[in-house]
Amino acid sequence: MSCFYLVKLETRKMNMLSQVELLPKGKPKGRRVAAYIPEEIAIELERWADNDTRSLSGLITHLLVKAVEERKEPKKDLGSG
């Protein structure tokens, strides 16, 4: 199985090596989706991704997975009592 190294760098530490991950080589698993978002939101997401040392795609995937998981959680009944 061929692999490659993904090196994540933190700009706050003057580009010193902060983490190395070994990831399998090949196509990502999942479905590609195109979306149009307002420019201001895109800029904020890019800053967020950079601060988290993630790709923009990785951040958006993380946010979508989290939103779907939260939606699946049973809603608490606030009206009883």
UniProtKB/TrEMBL annotation:
<dbReference type="InterPro" id="IPR010985">
    <property type="entry name" value="Ribbon_hlx_hlx"/>
</dbReference>
<protein>
    <recommendedName>
        <fullName>CopG-like ribbon-helix-helix domain-containing protein</fullName>
    </recommendedName>
</protein>
<dbReference type="InterPro" id="IPR012869">
    <property type="entry name" value="RHH_5"/>
</dbReference>
<dbReference type="GO" id="GO:0006355">
    <property type="term" value="P:regulation of DNA-templated transcription"/>
</dbReference>
<dbReference type="Pfam" id="PF07878">
    <property type="entry name" value="RHH_5"/>
</dbReference>
<feature type="domain" description="CopG-like ribbon-helix-helix">
    <location>
        <begin position="31"/>
        <end position="72"/>
    </location>
</feature>
